[in-house]
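Quick one - inputs below.
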Amino acid sequence: MSGGVDSSVAAAMLVADGHDVTGVTLKLWGGESDSGCCSVSDVEDARRVAQQLGIDHHVFNFGDDFDKHVIAPYVEAYDEGRTPNPCIECNRHIKFDKLLRRADALGFDLIATGHHARIVTDADGFLRVSRGADSAKDQSYVLHMLDQRQLRRLMLPVGDITKERVRELAHELGLRTATKPDSQDVCFIHSDGGRRKFLGDRIPLSPAVIVNRAGQQLGSTDAVQLVTIGQRKGLGLAGNDDRNYVVDIDRRNGVVTVGPESETFDPHTELVDVAWSGTSVDGLLHIQCSAHGSRATGRLEGSRVVWDEPHRRVASGQSVVFYVGDEVVGGATAA
Amino acid sequence: MVHYLDHAATTPVRRAVVEVMTRLMCDGVGNPSGAHRLARDANRILDEARDQMASALGAAPGEIVFTAGGTESDNLAVFGTLEARGGRAVCTAVEHHAILEPVESSGGQVVPVLPTGQIDLDALAEALTPDVSIVSVMLANNETGIVQPLAQVAELVRSQAPNALLHTDAVQAFSWLDVASIGRVADLVSVSAHKFGGPQGVGALVMRAGANVAPRLRGGGQERGRRSGTQNVAGIAGMAVAATETVRDRPAEILRISALRDRLADGIRESIPGVVESGVPSEWSTDEVARPGRGNQPDRRNKTANVCHVCFEGLESEALLFLLERNDVLASAAASCSSGAQEPSHVLAAMGYDRQLAFGSLRLSLGHTSTAADVDAVLNVLPEAVERLRTAELGAGMSDISAAVAVRGSVGG
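Output:
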């Protein structure tokens, strides 16, 4: 229970279904943060909701694990020119590993979260993550890597209802989190300093010149680590010039190249760490490359996606998730 | 039946305290600063309570300042002295945050402790420069129950920084040590009622004559101007009853409770491998198991009678506390932060404990309502709980579901 409305309602739905429920809030981040969970007021919200539901509430401090499995790789990725998905790493190592092991040790049968996604079972009893009922809020992308042993122990109560219905239920139950805004950004990044301050406190940020394809210098940046492929805004260039998309980042030599938007599209995307949920799929896939990104269609050839239509370049380090229909069938990381 | 082993956090209110407070509140308590009969009654109750507290704390009645608890007493001692005298504050690294925060935020100096948990007197001697105006050294630690050598500290302070005041936080010590006599070397002494059977939110600071300390709360000039604000008359009366009973029962209670504590700590060390008992000489830690009758009794002379504080290797105490609670054993690990999460203990860090080991800490603290059944309950459930969590950690995955389920009935309930 993060103190948000989704996990509040998830807990309420489980209680209504007659489960023996214990609320748990994870204390993951001790540093400055105002955009995500772990603040004293969020913990208080979670505790007050648990009290309303008549269930026990505990706070587990997984801060050391979070530092090791989420923060350190996040910083390292930027330092090495990749764009990480910290939410996926948190799910992989904290919520669905550390917490699951803790739940096991404490004698719980299952864990549940407030993610908007579903778990479906095929005829052979094989479990898959599937898109939530509210496609606009779907979070199957950040759960794509869950394996059978994790899915068997997991419930996603709000995956079957829309966000609107979640808020309605919260209102009906009089939960204090009913109107709480959705969390937006990476939970450990403070909105004041943003990524720049967070990374700048941890790794040296290096400058780069911004040039066009002709080699003409258009500007400069003092932190090449913060520049992403396909980016146009925030470079200090004329924001609406359609030739000012970042098309290449040469970190070693400190050169960021901008060009027309068409150059940010690729016919294919190279992948690493391709993993299928079950058996591999040869045919057409729906493929999603960011948490709230749209889906494109393509096929997997070896370790590369061949897109049906040229696809906006995927930043190295981003998770690439494969779907057939609404169901996750596999995933990989953009090379 | 609930087994309460968290008396160091707060201990149940004594029967006689409930009675006196209930009677006062039912009958009506006037404002002691007023002029009429009800006010005079309230003032008389305060005066009597002040006499009782003075006797319990080895002070003159005029030296007792009533506060809203240990944190206020501690803050008043440090900030009040700095305001009145200027200079710098010095404290140990194992103080309660109610001392550490004021000392650190005022640019004071934190003196390290030895691995035994006791202050490093050589380091203290170095820290005691003439500009030091207050030295704060707790009598007994709130997490480990380790007792500081206050007499030696006082000697050093008198010789090296003769103008400095000595404060001791006796919040944890009062139930188990003769504070009236041991605390005599201190100019300022903090106590808190709810640690010895009084109500929460009431405390006192002994302020010896001549120890001029500026007030933190200014207003109506109550407590001789040292702490303004209408006194919590019923609470203070309750505290005085609790203090009087505590002093009266203390010699017998120390014997009774230390016997229970020794059985508890010895039992844990006998039945569970990989355990370190804080403040008990290291030859008795981890590898060796103390067995009564072998002639090698663990030496707990430097601990208060009521605390059994241990660290288990290979587990996290928040999970252990959960399993204990499922078995109706209520205990704690270290100080909790405001969010309720377990934070690594600054006390154990100061004693040089490995961070992982410190995460496996468990404080079982006894008090005036503790019985042999409480000790039995812990010894009954703790070994299996520890074993179960260690297995889960080693398992690092779901491959041991069957093993975990197998022990579920016995521990997880």
